[in-house]
Amino acid sequence: MNPRLYGLIAEFDSPAAILRAAEKVRDAGFRRWDVFSPFPIHGLEKVMGFKNSLVGWFALVFGGSAFIGSMLMIWYMNDYSYPILVGGKPMFSPPQALVPSYILLVLSSAVGAFVGMVVMNRFPRLYHPLFKNNRFALVSRDKFFLVIETADPKFSETETRALLESAGSAHIELAVE
Amino acid sequence: MADSVTQLESLVPPRELRRGPQAPYQRGLGWLTDHLTAMPEGKTPRWWWVLFVPAAFCAAVVLPTMLIYLISTGVGVWGNNQPVAWGWGIINFVWWVGVAHAGTLISAMLFLTRQHWRTAIGRAAETMTVFAVMMAGIYPAIHVGRVWWAWWLFPIPLTTDMWPQFRSPLMWDVFAVNTYLIVSTLFWYMGLIPDLALLRDRAKTRVRKFLYGLFALGWTGSARQWHNYEKAYLVLSGLATLLVFTVSSIVGMDFATAQLAGWHETIFPFYFVAGAVFCGFGMVLVLLIPLRKWCHLEDIITLRHIDRVCKMTLMMGCIMGYIYAMEYFIAWYSGSPYDAWVFGHRLFGHYYWFGGWIMIGVNALLPQLFWIKKVRQNLALIFVIAVLINIGMWFERFVIIVGSLYQDFLPANWHAFYPTWVDAGTYLGTLGVFFTMYLLFVRFLPMVAVSEVKSITPQADPHHPLGGAKGGRP
To answer: According to a count of CB atoms within 10 Å of the terminal CB, is the N or C end of chain A lower?
Structure first.
């Protein structure tokens, strides 16, 4: 049985070349494609039409709920469950509870940002079809790759290859699942 | 892969369009990658073993011995007693927390302010942060005396319904230090993910491929991943920046809330933050100056980087000088005889007068040498100054803690403080653990953030001729 195809993988030499190629692929109307690079290429998110990443919302929700939860926790512990009078100070006052709550806000927002990154990127995903491709190992070094998946409705092996060639790719290979 | 050194001179844009380079990396991306992964992938050099063996001895033998002796016998094996109930344990705690701060400042604050040069030293400094906070955390935990009850510090439901007392800054400190450890570790690890993927892609053996691959979480470097990653990195650096100001502030409040002359000062939170960052820059220089030579990173961590860190150290040194002066001014202006007594005795006292002179001489005056460019270029001299800064900052905490405590309000209570060999051994042990972990990091992980350094080169900019724009070729 032939292995299932994953997509066409095109290699580029410079960030500008792959940015131009990405514009072409977008204009051709492809949907299931991605660009791989050793570092973030700025301007690519506009070309690929990314919306604002949801990671920030993860941080906000985690941090906000931790802050409210922590204020409630301190009120419950020091005022409701087991009140102890210390130096005539009020059992609960927001200014003093603010500091530990703020610390927990920072902690939870940071955890939220990390969890958001992991969830949005669908980590941990230790297997990827592209890892089978030998040239793809250079993606973390100095090469740039554009991959169009066979799952894309517009995918056609010959035409897509011609498009990537016209975009200036030096090497185009088929990647298997 | 034959682009070891790329000749780029002919592609430089005309003079009127040129901006001063943030980092002078006139090298190809491949060269940078090979060079920066040489240490984790190469053979273990001899200097590494020479440093590792004694450090590991301190970590594996000295520290456990001291801790077991301390916990099995009691805090009395330290020099602490009444009235000096906080001795080296708290001095070392504050010192280690301080060392940590520069790493966060470099990696988070300089990221937010778009100081691209930080990429070369950010990883090394961040690692210092993570390990230094770990060392700091040891001290309060063993200082509580009955270590087996240290878990009472956390809000855990008990049948007794007893809860932590959240009005106390000591309680805030527990949260602040643990938060600092977790946040800086997350920040550090997230920055490592692309580089772990790089090491996975380059791995020659199955074990390396498996381990680096496991921790790289399946990073492919796709634009979607970078998009989420950059957002998370931005959020985390914003939060870590908050911690630069928070953690040492709260450590300062531990002191400031006490009714003790020499501690009861509103300037303390700011004072401790400034001192922490200052001390941390000293440690950054101590670590980087030898490592850049031994790991052959002179082209990456250039003299310009060292120069900039020196300038930041100088700035912090000036702030320290201002704070010391302000402290004396407040002591005089307050009119409190106790304050005047304590501050007078810091310089002309019975026992620890030398501490005050070391503190002012080393922390406020010595960094003024960095005004001179020749000094900022002289690595040996910078190294000596940086070591002295670390010692000076240790003495600052000694002056604040022991110097304020040993002469109580009641002269009958006065008692001098002498450290014991267990005090010294514990400090040596934590230094050993720190350097052991740092050496393991240098050996197995890239000391410089490879993907970040590559991202600031002109070859990485799609709108620069070297990045392929306008017919240019990399």
So the answer is: N
Q: Which of A80, A100, A120 is the last residue of a domain?
A: A120
Domain membership of residue A72 as a residue range = 55-120
Domain boundaries, chain B: 26-154+163-463
Q: Are strands A33-36 and A144-149 parallel, antiparallel or unpaired?
A: antiparallel
Q: Are residues A26 and A60 in the same domain?
A: no
Nearest-CA residue of chain A relative to B460?
A15
Q: How far apart are CA A121 and CA A115, in angstroms?
A: 10
Question: Are A77 and B474 an interchain contact pair (Cβ–Cβ within 8 Å)?
Answer: no
Q: How many H helices and E strands in chain B? A: 18, 0
Question: Which of A120, A136, A168 is where one domain is finished?
Answer: A120
Do A61 and A80 have their domain in common?
Answer: yes
What would the mean pLDDT of A86-112 be, rounded to a whole number? 92
| Partners of residue B321 on adjacent β-strands | none
pLDDT in tens, B120-178: 999 999 999 999 999 999 999 999 888 999 888 899 988 888 899 898 888 999 999 99
Quick: pLDDT tens for A91-102.
999 988 999 999
Quick one: A61 and A31 in the same domain? no
Name the closest residue on chain A to residue B29, using Cα atoms.
A142
Nearest to B166 among A53, A54, A78 (CB): A78
pLDDT in tens, A140-149: 999 999 999 9
Average pLDDT over residues A64-81: 95
Length of chain A counted residue by residue? 177
CATH class belonging to B26-154+163-463? mainly alpha
Computed over every residue of chain B, the mean pLDDT equals 91
The Cβ-side half-sphere exposure at B369, using a 13 Å CA radius, reads 18
Query: Which are the contacts of A11, defined by CB distance < 8 A and separation ≥ 6?
Result: A135, A138, A143, A144, A145, A169, A170, A171, A172, A173
Q: ipTM of this complex > 0.90?
A: yes
A146 and A170 belong to one structural domain: yes
d(CA B272, CA B102): 13
CB atoms B463 and A16 under 8 Å: yes
Domain count, chain A: 2
Is residue A115 domain-shared with residue A59, that is, in the same domain?
A: yes
Residue A25: pLDDT above 70?
yes
